[in-house]
Amino acid sequence: xxxxxxxxxxxxxxxxxxxxxxxxxxxxxxxxxxxxxxxxxxxxxxxxxxxxxxxxxxxxxxxxxxx
Length: 67
What we know:
mainly alpha, 3 helices
């Protein structure tokens, strides 16, 4: 139960931080968090890691689209 609370808090933090991000970065972070949670069996570290990778992918996408 504690682990689920930690994961929920981490997702809430990323959601709040994503308010300052573009749509591509937000979608990337959310998708990365979902994939990280699925691959890692719901562990907090895999969820956070997936969100970070997804956010980075969204950022790169934005940079390439805004040439």
